[in-house]
Fold these 2 entries.
Entry 1:
Amino acid sequence: MIVIEAMTGKKVMSFDFKNSKHQQVLNLLKQSALSAGKAINKIGILRPRPNEIGNDIEPYVKNALNSLGLNADIPVGPSGHKKAMGYPDILFWFNKTPYYLECKTYNIEKIGTT
């Protein structure tokens, strides 16, 4: 968390399963993930390295979040411009609160490795 806070200047909040607002955000993220996954599976994404797919899925995730009214977009960096690369990938809003989302992918065959 310290690295993320240093890179972004934003405070990282711990997820609280007892907090109803956090549960609502989690449910919306689950819906978005399912929707984005279905859209991706219609077309498919082929890359030599699974971690490269993270960049390719971002538009699908943004579209899925936006379909739920979460106003997803590319975050603005310290320069004041939208950033093309770096952390985090997506900014979305829920109940006037900003949330930052990083899209990560992995190869299921490598799930037990670091």
Note: Residues 22-104 form one domain.
Entry 2:
Amino acid sequence: MKARRWLGLVALGFVLAACGSIGERYTLEEGAHLDGNQHLIAGEVDLEAGSRVAGNLNITAQEATVAAAIDGDLTIVSTQITLEDEATIQGDLIFCVVGGGDFEQARGAQVVGSVRNSCAEDAEAQVLALDDTGWARRVLGVFGVIFASLAAGMVAALGALFFPHRLRVVQVTAHEHALKALGWAFDPVGRRGAQRVTMPSPGVVVPLLLAPVILLSWGLVALLATLGAIALAQPFGGWLLGRLRLYQDAAPVIATVTGATCLTFVVLSFSLVQA
């Protein structure tokens, strides 16, 4: 029974490997014919000389080499497109080279219809038109700042709801002992816990077994840094609401959300002006 199970698993592995290899490379061999409109999607597409497609053909691939006879239109989207001498296209050739690739057409390749670079005429032109417009960049930047500020306010609200005691400890320590505030922030267990977390340099190559420890350490640092930022945002938000006479004694969550949102908006606005 065990031998049969292992044999079945091996056979299944071969079948899955064969199915997975279908999408890697597609070759239309010499003498092969495809009837009707076709759509080919693969890593590499090679239409050999002597093959024929009786209809329109759409190709999406990383590399496309065409030496076949196409009775209709040929549309190609690829990083590398090559039309060999034997290629014959009875209709139009519409291509789009992405990723900084090349389009190569041999002298013997025949295209009865028109040859059009759809990327250069349509997609790329539209992208450049939007990117080169100053007001469009500013509008997108302003919306990005607004959404980032609101997201910071939401994160601050969650921190104020789930870690109220830790935020209070950080605030009190920051007021009484400013130089020791960092130590309190890096004390996730209690006041008697470790006062310092030693982080390895990101550029140091560490063994694979230490990778989870490094990831957890960075996550801890990110969490504690977020708590520190929220602790600073809460008194600022309370002061701002008091100055605006909206709340004289605002709730911690409201003050935290207001402070985090306003501080993030101010900081990101400076970067937007510099850009």
Note: The two ends are 69 Å apart (CA to CA).
